[in-house]
Structures are given as structure tokens and as C-alpha cells.
Write a structure and sequence with these properties.
Elements lengths: L1 E6 L10 H4 L10 H22 L4 E6 L18 E4 L3 E4 L2 E4 L9 E7 L18 E6 L2 E2 L2 H10 L5 E7 H10 L4 E10 L2 E3 L3 H20 L12 E7 L2 H8 L5 E2 L4 E6 L4 H8 L3
Parallel strand pairs: 1-2, 1-6, 2-3, 6-9, 9-10
Antiparallel strand pairs: 4-5, 7-8, 7-12, 10-11, 12-14, 13-14
Helix pairs in contact: 2-5
Length: 279
């Protein structure tokens, strides 16, 4: 059994303040980045150990937060069955691509450390891809980053097994992906503050839910997210200026003052469309 863990950071255990995840912003305490990276690395270790105990033969761990580079590599769990990707983009078969190693050889896709989509009420740091996006839709369905990533994996018929994050992120995942296992490790108090159990307790919950996710995969009770093709994708921006700039990209159609759209031929091309058009 081969699993792929695609990690974000806003939804990890013990990370309760905006500055610990968005540590590049002005005025952040110097130690905030180290706090966030340490919490991420500890969560990764707990989830990886749980997946291996549950029977994973091979595991790819990809750090995607702000492009990656957040794991403390000399502190990750060392095991020959685990490959750590420091960045969310890398080379596979001589070609630069997103999430290298996510292909037909993977049996299950996990999304720990994730957050709710843009505009979600009662969520900690909700957004979709970038703060300038107000909404992203695939075939008319509003989705967040979890939906975009699951769509990418769906091209290879890889089911989404697991989400870890705040209450709002887990509810979003449960609505969109029937049968998914979720670990709710925090609750938003405001846009940029949240609360939750001590990290050790939250990691124990995460470990149990990872084991549940692997059991669901064995029982064949989860399915890939495969929107019908060709896919109609739309982005609604927060400003007219951003929509105007996007509409000048090749293959992008302006629908209204704030919204642009395009047609995408394969599920995995949703990311290529976002990146190649510079949105």
C-alpha cells in the first residue's frame, strides 16, 4: 500500500495564531516561524508513524505550505519506507511537475494540516490558493484547496482518505468527500486565532483517524474525486483589477466584473491551468 500525504500548515495541531503559519508577514515575532515549523514536524512524525503502523508499505510526505521548505528535516521520522519532499514542485521522469510521485502507483491521498476555503464563516485562516480569490468553482461546485488537490489526484483514480484541520475544514471535507476520515484538532475563535487541545492529545486523535482512513481504503469505501470532463473552472476575484489582469491570460474568458473562466480537459490540468495562466 502506497500513500501520499500532502501537508499544509494552517490546520496542524497546536498552531493557534496567524503568525505561526503566515510568518512572512510584517510585524511577526522572530520565533513564530520556528514555532510553526516545530509543530508541523511533530504532526508529520505522528501521522507518518500511524500510517506505517496501519500497514502502509510506502509513504510520500509532501510539504506544500507556501511552496514547502517548512519541515525540520533532521527531526523527521527516519524510515526507509518514507520519502520526504521538501517542496511541492519537483522533477519526475525528467519533467518539473506539482506533487512528484503522485501517480497511478499511489493507492490513497491524505490532506493533513489543511484549512477551509475562502469565505468560510467560523474558520481559522480560510482562503483558497491566494487571498485575492473570493471563490473557485469546478463545474459550478465551490471548492477550496482540498477540492483542487483532490481533483488533481482524481486524474489517477486516487481516493482522498483523510483531512486534518479545524472544525470548519473537516466539515467542508465531509460534505465534499463521502466516507472521508477527519481529525478536527482546533476551533476558530476569529479569522486569525483559534483554540484546541494540547498538541499531544490532538496528535493521538490524528493517529487514530489516519488508521481509520487506511482501514477505509482497505474496505474500498472511499472514492476518487473526478469531476466530469471537460471541466468548467471559474475564479471570482475580490477586485476588478485582478479579474481584468486574469482575463488577459491565454484561454481565460471574462464572465463578469469579478469572474473569469476556462475549460480544462483533464482533472490533473486544473493545477496546470492555475499555474500556467499565472492566476
Amino acid at each position: 500500500m502506497k500513500l501520499f500525504m500532502h501537508w499544509d500548515m494552517e490546520g496542524i495541531s497546536g498552531l493557534f495564531a496567524r503568525e505561526q503559519a503566515w510568518f512572512w508577514e510584517e510585524g511577526v515575532r522572530p520565533e513564530a516561524e520556528e514555532e510553526g515549523r516545530r509543530l508541523l514536524t511533530a504532526d508529520v512524525n505522528a501521522a507518518v508513524a500511524a500510517a506505517l503502523r496501519a500497514g502502509a508499505d510506502e509513504l510520500i510526505v509532501c510539504d506544500t505550505h507556501c511552496g514547502g521548505g517548512n519541515l525540520i528535516l533532521d527531526q523527521v521520522l527516519a524510515d526507509p519506507r518514507v520519502t520526504y519532499l521538501e517542496k511541492s514542485r519537483g522533477y519526475q521522469d525528467g519533467r518539473l511537475r506539482w506533487m512528484p510521485g503522485l501517480d497511478q502507483s499511489v493507492d490513497g491521498f491524505l490532506l493533513p494540516g489543511h484549512h477551509a476555503k475562502a469565505g468560510t464563516a467560523g474558520a481559522f485562516l480560510p482562503h483558497t490558493w491566494m487571498l485575492e480569490w473570493a471563490d473557485f468553482r469546478i463545474n459550478g461546485q465551490s471548492v477550496g484547496e482540498m477540492g483542487i488537490e483532490a481533483c488533481f489526484a482524481g486524474h489517477w483514480d486516487i481516493p482522498v482518505l483523510f483531512v486534518q484541520g479545524d472544525v470548519a475544514a473537516c466539515r467542508e471535507a465531509e460534505r465534499q468527500f463521502p466516507g472521508i476520515a477527519t481529525a478536527s484538532v482546533k476551533r476558530a475563535e476569529s479569522f486569525d486565532l483559534c483554540s484546541g487541545p494540547y498538541p499531544e492529545a490532538a496528535r493521538r486523535l490524528t493517529a487514530r483517524k489516519v488508521a481509520e482512513a487506511v482501514a477505509n481504503l482497505r474496505a474500498d469505501s472511499v472514492a476518487p474525486y473526478k469531476p466530469a470532463l471537460p471541466m468548467a473552472v471559474t475564479v471570482r476575484f475580490r477586485s476588478v483589477e485582478s479579474a481584468e489582469a486574469a482575463s488577459r491570460k491565454p484561454g481565460v474568458e471574462r464572465l463578469d466584473e469579478l469572474t473569469v473562466a476556462a475549460s480544462v480537459e483533464r482533472q490533473c490540468d486544473v493545477v496546470r491551468w492555475i499555474v500556467d495562466t499565472g492566476l
